[in-house]
Each structure stands twice: as structure tokens, then as C-alpha cells.
Write a structure and sequence with these properties.
Distance between the termini: 81 Å
Number of helices: 6
Strand content: 35-45%
Helix content: 10-25%
Radius of gyration: 26 Å
Number of strands: 12
Order of helices and strands: HHEEHEHEEEEEHEHEEE
Structural class: alpha+beta
Length: 201
């Protein structure tokens, strides 16, 4: 075998070895790159609406544009998000994920909503199955399930029910908040009088 043919054969073997180990292959991700991708903040959906969710605007693109250095800090206002419900108090809900785990955060108009660069979403243990607010006994009630669920933070809910949050379905009557929920799969319920603190679980 000539020296030229021998050199060509060695070159082919060397290229095959490099290909097999992935060295110099742009299609391979380094462990560091994979870790960054797993921790990337993804805004799944963001909505800006009045507290009873009767008028809602999808503000996902706007919130995505506020993500910097894999984190989010926003004080929701009409100036930033528009005004889907004039002369009404509004709230922002942000569904977000990292590493495929989805969580959500909620902030009233003027409050600060923050998702830290190293913050991890929390897997759901607390689930609000049904929440109603209204007059005691035969008084009219309204469904406030979504609103109470929006208040979940780290599998806890703390709020004080009242007309300012839910509206007034039964004017002139004493009102209560009834919440059906599950925690770690166990079904429970709680009844809270108007203006009394609700703390779940």
C-alpha cells in the first residue's frame, strides 16, 4: 500500500472517531447549555382583566417582552397593558413554566409581580374545585372559582372576601364565601363570612 493511500485511510478513521464521540458536532448540547434550557422562563399565557373576569385581554406578548435575564418584574397598569375594563379594578394572571412544570402568579393592579431568575415553579398540591360568593341562605351567589384559584401562591391562598374583590351579588345581605378544594388529593371545603380571612389549606 502506498504512503498516499495509507494516509487517506488514517484520515477517514480519525474523522469517524470524531463523529462517534460528538466532538465538533454543532448538533450536540453541552450539559451547561441543557441546564440553561431547562431553567428558561417561558410565559405560557398572561391575562389582564377586571376582578370578575367579565372583560379580559390577552397580554401574553406584552409580558413576554418584559422578561429580562430569565426573570420578570412587572407592576400591572393600564399604561402598560391597556384598559379592557374602564373604571374597574383589574388583576394580572401569568401562567409560566420552567423545565416543563407550569405554575401561575397573580397580582392586583398596582401590586408587583415577580418571577426570579432562579425561581422554580411549584407542582400543584392545592386545587380549587369550586368557589361561590353571595348572600347567606337564599341570597343570590356568583361563581368566583377562577378568582380564588388565581390567588394560589406556593400552594396557599390568603384573602379577605368582600364586595371589593367579588362584586355584590346580594345587596343589603350578609354574605359568605364557600370554597371546595383538594389538597394532596383529599377533598375539603370551607365557609368564610364576609370580611373574615380565608387561609388555605
Amino acid at each position: 500500500m502506498s504512503n498516499t493511500r495509507r494516509s487517506s485511510g488514517l484520515a477517514i478513521l480519525l474523522l469517524a472517531a470524531v463523529s462517534a464521540t460528538g466532538l465538533g458536532c454543532s448538533g450536540k448540547k453541552s450539559p451547561g447549555a441543557a441546564a440553561i434550557a431547562d431553567n428558561k422562563l417561558v410565559i405560557v399565557k398572561a391575562t389582564w382583566s377586571d376582578v370578575r373576569d367579565e372583560k379580559t385581554a390577552d397580554v401574553t406578548k406584552t409580558i413576554e417582552g418584559l422578561v429580562k435575564d430569565n426573570s420578570l418584574t412587572v407592576v400591572p397598569s393600564d399604561r402598560i397593558l391597556g384598559d379592557p375594563a374602564s373604571f374597574k379594578v383589574k388583576h394580572l394572571r401569568v401562567d409560566w413554566s420552567k423545565g416543563g412544570v407550569v405554575d401561575h402568579k397573580h397580582a392586583m393592579e398596582g401590586e408587583t409581580l415577580t418571577i426570579g431568575a432562579n425561581e422554580k415553579p411549584v407542582a400543584a398540591r392545592l386545587v380549587i374545585t369550586k368557589a361561590t360568593y353571595g348572600g347567606v341562605g337564599s341570597g343570590k351567589t356568583i361563581d368566583v372559582t377562577r378568582h380564588v384559584a388565581d390567588r394560589i401562591d406556593n400552594n396557599k391562598v390568603s384573602l379577605i372576601p368582600g364586595n371589593a374583590i367579588f362584586g355584590d351579588p346580594s345587596p343589603g345581605q350578609a354574605k359568605q364565601l364557600l370554597v371546595d378544594y383538594t389538597f394532596d388529593g383529599a377533598a375539603k371545603s370551607k365557609v368564610i363570612d364576609e370580611f373574615q380571612p380565608l387561609n388555605l389549606p
